[in-house]
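Justification of computing resources. Each target in the renewal requires a structure prediction run like the one illustrated here; the chain below, 161 residues long, is used simply to show the kind of job we budget for.
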Amino acid sequence: MNKEERQELIRHIIGTQAIGSQIELTRAVRKEGVSVTQATICRDIKEMQMVKTPGKNGKYRYAIAPEEEGANAQGRFIRMLKDGIIAISHAYNQIVIRTISGSAHVVAETLDNFEWKEVLGTIAGDNTILVIARSNEAVNVLLKRIETMTGITEEFPDADE
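Resulting structure tokens:
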């Protein structure tokens, strides 16, 4: 199966099933008899500009962005950051981002989709993201970029508040 056929199959699966992770999507494609790796599915998700949207049960699921939004994927990503981030702070080469409950994985994936060279990786919990920067100096670049996109400046509420 070539890439175009595989991506058409993915469109069909996403349109008919509630798929919330790359692993679930990989399994669904394999169930259709296609030998595929999770890395290939990850590339397809990025190429197809798939987004996660809340499902009827409150869990996030993949969806194909409408054509007009696909052309403006970066604007959609920025909205996800603005809507999800509550606070941000850093120490050394690490940035900690607090999000609204249940959205850390969506915000982290959004950050990953930017593919910033300064980011080594992200780890997401329920409402907290750890961003590992490649250097202490890269943290300032990343903080400025996030502030420019979201208007959120570095500041965590004090524990006493």
